[in-house]
Amino acid sequence: MRSVSFRTALLVRFAFIALVPLLLLGTFAGLRISEVYEVSQQAENDLLVGNLKYHVQSLLDAPVVALRQFDGLDLQSPEARVLLDSSVANVEYVESILLVGSDARVVQASLDRRVHAFAHDYVGLDKSADPQVIEALGRKRVSWSSIMTSGASGNRVIQVAVPLSRGAALATIDIESLVEPVDGASTDAGVTRAILGRTGTVLFHSSPEISRLRPNLANLPVVSDARDVGASSERYRTSSSEVMGSAQLLEGVGWVVLVERDWAESRATISTLWSILAVGLLAVAALAAIVSMLFARQLHRPIARLGQTAGEIAQGDYSHDVHWYPQREMNELSADIAKMAEAVQSREHELARSASELEEGNKRLGQMVHGITEAMGKAVEAKDPYAHSHQTRVAQLAGALARRLGLSEEQQACIELSSLVHDVGKLGVPAEILVKPGALSDIEMAIARAHPEYGFEILKDVSFPYPVAEVVLQHHERMDGSGYPRGLAGDQVSIEARVIAVADVVEAMASHRPYRPSLGLAAAIDEIRSHQECFDQSVSKALFDLYDEGGIPF
Amino acid sequence: MGQGAARAALRVFAVTLLACLCALILAGCASKPDPIRIGFLGEISGRSSQLGLAGRNGAQLAVEQINDSGGIDGRPVELIAAAISSSEEVTAAIQHLADSGAVAIVGPMTSASAVRAVTAADQIGITLIGPTVSTDMLTGKADYFLRMYPSNDRAARVMAEEVSSRIGEVRAAVVLDQSNAAHTETWYRNFSSAIQSNDGSIVALETFVSGQGTDFTRLVENVLRSEPNCVLVLANSTDAAMVSQRLRLSGSEVQVIVSEWSATTDLIALGGSSVEGLLYLDTFDRLSQSPEYNEFVDAFEGRFGEAVGFGTIHAYEAAEVVIEALRAGADRESIRDYIINRSQFQGLQGAIAFDQYGDATRVQHLSTVRDGRLVPVDSP
Lengths: 554, 380
Prior knowledge:
- By secondary structure, chain A is of the alpha+beta class.
- Chain A has helices at 6-68, 78-90, 119-122, 131-138, 175-184, 210-213, 221-229, 263-314, 328-383, 390-405, 409-420, 431-435, 442-448, 451-459, 468-474, 495-510, 521-530, 537-549, and strands at residues 94-100, 106-109, 143-144, 148-149, 156-164, 167-174, 191-196, 202-205, 231-237, 242-250, 255-262.
- Chain B is built from 12 helices and 15 strands.
- At the A-B interface, helix 1 and strand 4 of A face helix 1, helix 2, strand 2, helix 8 and helix 9 of B.
């Protein structure tokens, strides 16, 4: 199983808890931005189109107010004549005014503003089929015509009829002049304004190119909707761009005012909002990551510290202080670890004491073994006076050789212990044979040569820590197989036995014997040198080196 | 190990982000096939805009209806209109429509614009179908101009015969608006020769230019001085109404004749009782009971909230002819030949037949104003 660090696990969980809802929230907000922005833009558009509507409405109201002045007047009177001309003069976009009697015949006509003549053309005309006059006379209400072409000027005009107590007044309004103030009003960049006639004629558009570029303006669903329900706002594509359009109907005259806002700009704004949101999300995400990291670290720190303490305790450092942590569990854990360290320490002390006691016992036991062994050696020497101190001295030399050879401590100890008792088997050889001067008979020789086997028999049941009995058995074996009792050769002879063999020969020759004087150390060395095949080469070499250095202990 | 977990977290983060992005992109994409474009050319603003708007709305309705029924082979149809405010702008407008990918153009609406338009259409190689162009200056020519409307030589002849049979020896005075000379002058010429061959004569000719401050009182005085028994007014409805009003105010009961150009609802609104009984030739029967026609009238009034006029009807029919040809697989190069070779198309009131020059012939009804309505003379 893969394991994850506590800190990483914490970090990942915190990050998830913080980031996933954040991302979901951010995405949701992002998806809603366009919608929310669209609503705000629509509200702004509605405001603009409302302003435009009231502007146009006020322009359209002016001639109606002018026509109402004729109410109550005798339409054929000179006052009516004067008022007629001053009215045309006062409202600059009124082209002409006709006063129509109750019989729908024109009673008086103003001069035509454009051509300054031909008022007489109109007097007497039958207006009984004129829908505006019919409305004004029959239903007593203000009525607006569709867009028409002026017979006098050829301009696009609209007519409005206002009911009077004794007939009606009919004004012809020049559309171009009417919309001029609208044209003068400033427009925001990317916003166009339009006024559309009842049948879709573009009466005004703030972009002069529009009638060429978008002659279908009046067929837009937003315009149709405004005609049906009074006001409408929607977003749509034109041939060249995407716009947010808002339209409102001017009651009575039936015109529609339209404000269009280039959506490309709004789209750019939305992108900016998106970018801000994205950057904000990233920033918050980064912040969340950092906070998570700090949080994880704060939680992780006491654990790491406790872990470190545990490590130190494992290393044997029990000097653990109880730390204070902000978390109760941590404090308890820390106290528990301190208690544990204390317990471990006292247990260790106890163990150490037992160990030293044991060591002491062992040491004494070793000394005892050594002592007993030495005692056994001395027993042999008591029986063989010629062999006085022989085993002790062999032990000294063999020990020196073993050290020289770099043998293990165990081997050294084995060699030393075995040396001390190597001739213990002589206890089984009759004293007459041992002390007999001169040559021994074959039988006597055979008995004398049985001493390693006697020694083995004596020692074999003693449980030395080392194979002392075996070494004693082998100490007269030779490398070339010429030794006794078993005639072992080469590797069959243990290293301990080989060392003792050399030391035994050298000590025997170099020592005085009651039956002869010492042959001298040099002769002993020569003896070894001249019988190298009998001895281990490395042991011989060690002997020669010791001799050359004067390191032989006797 | 810690790195592994961090990478896993990063992966989940990336996948979430990607999913959000995908959702956004998918929401933004909704492809639809490229539309087939039909051009419209007409005077949408300016003095003749009434006819231009009527035509544009008629063509627009035809396009909306085909789109409602699924388009042409699944492709939507788009009407792109090039508005002109006077006949001088025609050449540039046709170029603009051709550049915008129009396969054919419905329009222009007036004879004056049509005469200019033919040269440009021939050069570019784009077919024009004039809904209401009546001038005989373009009759019998193998050009890129097709017409839905009969040329006025026949109309003038029929009218001359009708008047002669009603009045006997005709003494006709003519009032003529020079601002649409392509229509009015050819009409006048054809009428003049037809009257003379019916033993009648033209006793006066008064011309004016609409919108230039004409003194109609004097104009009518001049007309009446020659004691005509019939006055032919070749003018727009406003001017024709004015002439009629002044004639009746002068006490004259003379028979008034107008061309179909004047025969709009405005003529009645402005003319009142003075236009009762005048005569004109109509290319459609306004009282027709034909279901196709009545469905069309309902659809149009429902959509645009205005009454149908002859401009509306013929522009609608012209757009229908173009749509029929496109349905049959015609493109910009082949549409003209397809229409001429097929010849027969169904109009709103009976068949339309194109001859080898792309000129349509159709039934014309002698019509009048009765009780403030435009009706066929022989209607009850």
